[in-house]
Amino acid sequence: MLVIRLQTPNDTEPAWAVLSNKPADWQHGSWEKLLPAARGQDIVLLIPSREVLLTQTSVNTRNQRQLQQAVPFALEDSIADDLDHQHIVWQTRADSTQVDVAIIRRDRLRVWVNALQAHQLRANSVLPDLFALPWEADSLTLWQQGETIWIRTGELSGYASSPAALPLLLDSLTSGKTEALPLRLYSDQTETWEADARFALLTETQAEQLLPSSLQPALKLNLLNGLQDENRANFREHWQRWRLAASLAAITALLAVGIYGVESYRLQQQLDAVDAQNVVLFSQLFPSVSDVDPRSLKNRLASELVRMKGQNNASGTSSSPLPQLAAVAAAMQTAGGLTVEDIRAQTGTLTVNLQAPNQQAIETLRDTLETALGNPVELQSSRTADSVKATLTLGGKS
């Protein structure tokens, strides 16, 4: 078990001790020196006791669910701050109705937990640092060094005091005592305490050691107890608040994905139909070519036209419609939205039936062909509900 003691959340020189079943010496240094000792160890974080209120209350139940409601209610009058901001842990006693309680502001507890996480460490337990003091039944343990004063009064109880408040605290602890109270003392002011007849001093010399019997019993009051349950409760509360909005957002997203999928499927079906139509037309024009891929149809058409034009020029044939066909293919590459329905070739004449979105596209195609061929192109067209059907007749010799 690695015990880390911090004075502030951003403490640059922590103290630590590797505790087993025998006393461990406190070490002091940098985080770089501490981190190798953390490998494979459960980590106990000791935070300043001034951050934690240790108290007791009486609750006549041992049922944990009832305790969760009864303990905060029993302490409500003794806590000045809003109970909703407090994190409360408790431990029942086997022989009485007394309950030992530790209280810390929830936001401060998370600050201390995050202080370790900043160094890639996770605390298994968080305790006030006065539990580093040893303790025996029917006695007190007091540490006093300058302005720092801790008093451990029991296995799970104690105080962090200021020098001004210490006399009143000692009066309350010794009130009604007829015999001197054993006091285990860690102090650089022993002369003052020796003169106080209320105490029988047990002076300690091993101030820089941590005893297993000091810390292990206090782990029952681990400040991390219940913190995860609070986080889950907060999550459920926020989820209840935003559940309707989140559900509507999820439904909207699913509808959008569904509509997109249906529309994509419909467009793909149309594209597949156009590809099939183009492949059939290509096969009619070039029956000797097989295994045509629709994705490369445009390039294949251009290469076939170039090949056939070259063959035609080599043979000196001037009556072939291939020059007109090549001109049609080149012109259609520059025009958009045109669909060829069929092509018929007779001696010296090429007839192309096609479909266009508007009359202007047909006129543009005709002008392009006349410029390319140097011959007039006959045009006949008719309009349907959403397109224009046209027949182009290319005559003359090339």
List the helices and strands and how they pair.
Elements: E1 2-5, E2 15-18, E3 24-25, E4 27-28, H1 31-34, E5 43-47, E6 53-58, H2 64-75, E7 86-92, E8 98-105, H3 106-117, E9 125-128, E10 140-145, E11 148-154, E12 157-161, H4 166-174, E13 181-187, H5 190-194, E14 199-203, E15 209-210, H6 212-215, H7 227-285, H8 297-315, H9 322-334, E16 339-346, E17 349-356, H10 359-373, E18 377-383, E19 388-394
Parallel strand pairs: 1-5, 5-9, 10-13, 13-14
Antiparallel strand pairs: 1-2, 2-4, 3-15, 6-8, 7-8, 10-11, 11-12, 16-17, 17-19, 18-19
Helix pairs in contact: 8-9, 9-10
Summarize the structure.
By secondary structure, the protein is an alpha+beta fold. 38% of the residues lie in helices and 26% in strands. The mean pLDDT is 84.
Percentage of residues in DSSP E strands: 25-35%
Question: Quick one: biggest sheet?
Answer: 5 strands, mixed
**Number of DSSP strands?**
19
| Share of helical residues | 25-40%
Based on secondary structure, the structural category is alpha+beta
Q: How much is the average pLDDT?
A: 84
Uncertain spans, ≥5 residues at pLDDT below 50? Answer: none
Question: Termini, distance in Å?
Answer: 98 Å
Pattern of helices and strands: EEEEHEEHEEHEEEEHEHEEHHHHEEHEE
Taking all Cα atoms into account, the compactness measure Rg is 46 Å
Shape: rod-shaped
Plain-language structure description:
The chain is of the alpha+beta class and 398 residues long. Helix content is 38%, strand content 26%. It has helices at 31-34, 64-75, 106-117, 166-174, 190-194, 212-215, 227-285, 297-315, 322-334, 359-373, and strands spanning 2-5, 15-18, 24-25, 27-28, 43-47, 53-58, 86-92, 98-105, 125-128, 140-145, 148-154, 157-161, 181-187, 199-203, 209-210, 339-346, 349-356, 377-383, 388-394. Strands 4-2-1-5-9 form a 5-stranded mixed beta sheet, with no helix packed on it. Helix 8 runs antiparallel to helix 9 (322-334) and helix 9 crosses helix 10 (359-373). It is rod-shaped and about 135 Å long. The model has no long low-confidence stretch (mean pLDDT 84). It is found in: Cell inner membrane. One of its GO terms (cellular component) is type II protein secretion system complex.
